């Protein structure tokens, strides 16, 4: 069951990535980020209020936001710091790079998660899982060769380093999620609500320092319907992902890989919608990544 929940998370993440590209294209990154996380917070706020006044009903619907100790709030705040840094780097990179380059690089995230799962959680892959992960990494390398044809030098372009850093931080957050869900026994909506609350505060602080005092940057911001859509789709994807993680048999390394199937949406539909280059050539490494995911799921 947890694998199917992972596939649902991948579906909504793929749609989330398409909306995110539209939201940041030619736009100011920090207000877009704050707008998306605020939309997610507003989506969850009625659940928090309902949990206070109608706890029985929200528990029955598995949407109850429970009271948690101060120490647990601290652990969630750490996740917010990690993901705020990851999103700032990822959104800046997405603003300057094609989605068909950004998404495959992000697909290397399962490898970092894979290593962490072995070292921290002692998850043990079999031979086919090893083959699948290295096939994914090789396919990402092929994307880097295609990217050079679009004028993107992977060694000198700072946005490439930004998206690699975002990928590493995102993978770290994924490993941390298993600790929050399985060790601290947080239910998905409780984690999501407080994560949104703290991340919203962090991003508002960054925005106050770097954006509000600069009138020229304020004028560049454009409101788009995809800004709240990004936040809403992300919360739906996270709900299915955290529900999958609640299963004691769920392996974080496999969930991370399953989520990579989102790139089918991002590369195929994204390439068509945003009219990016070399779409056919990118289908070759795309096939390699999908084959890697298949090997992991079938092993």
Set out the fold topology:
Layout: H1 2-24, H2 29-53, H3 55-60, H4 70-96, H5 99-106, H6 109-121, H7 127-148, H8 158-183, H9 188-210, H10 215-220, H11 226-245, H12 252-259, H13 263-273, H14 279-298
Task: Profile the largest sheet.
Answer: none
Instruction: Work out the number of β strands.
Output: 0
Q: What percent of residues adopt helix (DSSP H or I)?
A: over 70%
Number of structurally distinct domains: 1
Secondary-structure element order, as H and E? HHHHHHHHHHHHHH
| Count of DSSP-assigned helices | 14
Give a summary of the structure in a few sentences.
The protein has helices at 2-24, 29-53, 55-60, 70-96, 99-106, 109-121, 127-148, 158-183, 188-210, 215-220, 226-245, 252-259, 263-273, 279-298. The protein has 299 residues and is mainly α.
